[in-house]
Specification:
This protein is an alpha/beta fold and 358 residues long. It has 14 helices and 13 strands. It has two domains: 2-166, Rossmann fold (3-Layer(aba) Sandwich), CATH 3.40.50.2000; 171-342, Rossmann fold.
């Protein structure tokens, strides 16, 4: 059986790929973007990860949907038609038996082309507030997997299955040996998403000397060439500060296991990882995330009593105060995690694979 995987959320896609690779009778191909959206000098996270897994990667050029009319939105319409033509060619040449898309504009033309060939289309929706692409594709989907029960309201109930978000096994594995030398201070883990966050990096740089007085600071900076944040931050050579452009999944798993607090963007996958490991956090929503989904995730965690929310337009000192608030009231935040256990399911990737292959 040949499965084509696509979509804009690479982390859950990779978790399902890990599960599919256990099946000797399954072939996998991945359709996505080779470079980051705004920077054609930086390889995309999905491209680098899929290449490591030795899975065929097919680059697709397509456009985003826009709810407003502008020159950019008109150009995007043209790109969407290019994407549909490319997708028809991909489907014709590779003849997949099923499509699994993880949201985002990249999956739309592939799903349409597959549906035209009567190939089953499966959708996984990671967020509380489903994106436009998955809402549109719901009509043609065979089954829809959702992470949050709140997403059920916008999809047909008969073909919607609550699975949760799959977490990569490489993160969940117990890694006992530390990959850095640490002292007795508590660990503060900072990450700005798969590519890093320049805005968050600047805030951390502004308060770094204060942070390193109390914490071992492990900082996944990303390495977007436009900003060179990693080079700048690593040149500071501050005691108790460990910047890294990227981290392996098992390293992230180790940090999660030992961190006292996390400062991060509020993507759906990060939120599920924080719930799994019971780590209090300060969440910094991406202001321009689709449908304000990161704001919704951040305030979902805040209302559950396990996180504080920082608006990146505010002063860095406010972020410092929130970090200290969460750390010094750690017990309060920890006490609220049990109510979130209902969102964490076992073997999510295996359940999704079972539904597709049965």
């Amino acid at each position: 059986m040949k499965i084509l995987i696509t979509g804009g959320h690479a982390t859950p896609a990779l978790a399902v790929i890990e599960e599919l690779q256990k099946r000797k009778d399954v072939q996998i191909i991945f359709v996505g973007r080779q470079y980051t959206v705004d920077n054609e000098l930086t390889l995309s996270y999905e491209y680098t990860q899929v290449e490591k897994l030795k899975i065929p990667f097919i680059h697709l050029t397509t456009g985003k949907f826009s709810r407003s009319i502008s020159l950019k939105s008109i150009l995007n319409i043209g790109k969407i038609f290019i994407g549909i033509l490319q997708s028809r060619k991909i489907i014709h040449e590779h003849k997949p038996d099923a499509i699994l898309t993880f949201g985002g504009y990249i999956g739309f033309p592939i799903a349409l082309a597959a549906h035209d060939r009567k190939i089953p289309v499966y959708i996984h929706e990671q967020t509380i507030n489903p994106g436009l692409t998955n809402r549109l594709l719901a009509r043609i989907a065979t089954k829809i997997f959702i992470a949050f029960p709140q997403a059920q309201r916008v999809f047909p109930s008969k073909k919607t299955i609550l699975t949760g978000n799959p977490i990569r096994t490489s993160i969940l594995k117990n890694v006992e040996k530390p990959f850095i030398k640490i002292g007795n201070n508590p660990i503060l883990f900072i990450m700005g998403g798969t590519l890093g966050s320049h805005s968050l990096n600047v805030h951390i740089e502004n308060i770094l000397e204060e942070l390193t007085k109390d914490f071992i600071v492990i900082h996944q900076t990303g390495n977007i060439q436009e900003y060179n944040d990693f080079e700048r931050l690593s040149s500071l050579r501050i005691k108790n500060y460990f910047p890294a452009p990227h981290m392996y999944q098992n390293e992230i798993g180790w940090v999660y296991k030992h961190a006292s607090i996390v400062v991060s963007r509020a993507g759906a996958n990060t939120v599920f990882e924080l719930m799994h490991f019971n780590i209090p956090s300060v969440l910094v929503p991406l202001p321009w995330s689709a449908g304000k989904e990161q704001d919704k995730h951040a305030y979902f965690m805040h209302e559950a009593g396990v996180s504080e929310v920082f608006d990146q337009s505010k002063d860095s000192e406010e972020l410092l105060l929130l970090i200290k608030k969460v750390f010094f009231n750690n017990k309060y935040y920890q006490e609220h995690f049990p109510q979130l256990k209902k969102y964490i399911q076992d073997d999510v990737a295996a359940k999704i694979v079972h539904e597709i292959l049965q």
